[in-house]
Specification:
The chain has 182 residues and is mostly helical. It has 7 helices and no strands. The mean pLDDT is 86. InterPro entries: PTS_IID_sorb (IPR004699).
C-alpha cells in the first residue's frame, strides 16, 4: 500500500512542480520577453523600418556580416531570446543559418556579457568559481570563450547554409534569397 501511496504522491508532485515552473515563467520570462519585444519594435520604429531593412540588406550580401556581426550585435543589444527575432530582416534562405549562429551567440558571449543570457549565468559562474578557486583570473577564459565563439558561431551559420541547400533540394522547395520589405 505504501508503494501505491508514494506513487500517487510522486505523480501529483510532478504536476505541482510543473505548475511552479509555469508560474515562474508567467512572473519571470514572459514579462521580460514581452517588454523586450516592445522595446525592439519601438527601437525599430524609432530608427525606421527602411534603415533596418537597409542594414539587413547589407548584412545579407556578406556571410561574415549575416552570421558573424548581425547575430553578435543582436545578442549584445537584445539578449536571449530576442536576438533570434532579428533574423526576420533577412531573406528566407538565410533565416535558418542566422538562427543557428544567433542561438550560439546567446551562449558563448555570456562570460563577458552576462546580460545576454541571464538564465545560463549559473553555468558560467560555476566554471568561473572553479577557476578563481585555483587562484586564476576568469577573464582570460571568458575572452577566449567569446573569441572562439565568434569564429565557431559564424561557422555554425555558414554550415547551416549548406545543409539548408541540401534540404531544399531534397524537399524540392526554393527559399527566397531576396529581402522582403513590408
Amino acid at each position: 500500500m505504501d508503494f501505491a501511496v508514494n506513487l500517487a504522491a510522486g505523480f501529483m508532485n510532478l504536476f505541482t512542480l510543473g505548475a511552479e515552473t509555469f508560474v515562474s515563467w508567467v512572473t519571470g520570462i514572459v514579462p521580460k520577453v514581452l517588454l523586450l519585444l516592445i522595446f525592439m519594435n519601438s527601437l525599430i520604429a524609432f530608427i525606421g523600418q527602411d534603415k533596418i531593412n537597409s542594414f539587413a540588406k547589407v548584412c545579407s550580401k556578406n556571410v561574415l556580416l549575416a552570421y558573424g556581426v548581425l547575430p553578435f550585435l543582436s545578442a549584445f543589444m537584445l539578449g536571449n531570446p530576442m536576438a533570434l527575432s532579428m533574423g526576420k530582416f533577412l531573406p528566407e534562405r538565410m533565416k535558418p543559418s542566422y538562427y543557428a549562429s544567433a542561438a550560439y551567440h546567446c551562449h558563448t558571449n555570456s562570460g563577458i556579457f552576462p546580460h545576454i543570457n541571464v538564465g545560463e549565468l549559473f553555468i558560467w559562474l560555476g566554471i568561473a568559481n572553479g577557476i578563481t578557486t585555483l587562484g586564476l583570473d576568469a577573464t582570460p577564459l571568458a575572452l577566449r570563450y567569446l573569441l572562439l565563439g565568434l569564429v565557431m558561431n559564424f561557422f555554425a551559420g555558414w554550415i547551416t547554409d549548406f545543409t539548408t541547400k541540401i534540404v531544399m533540394k531534397q524537399q524540392k522547395i526554393e527559399l527566397s534569397n531576396k529581402l522582403k520589405t513590408e
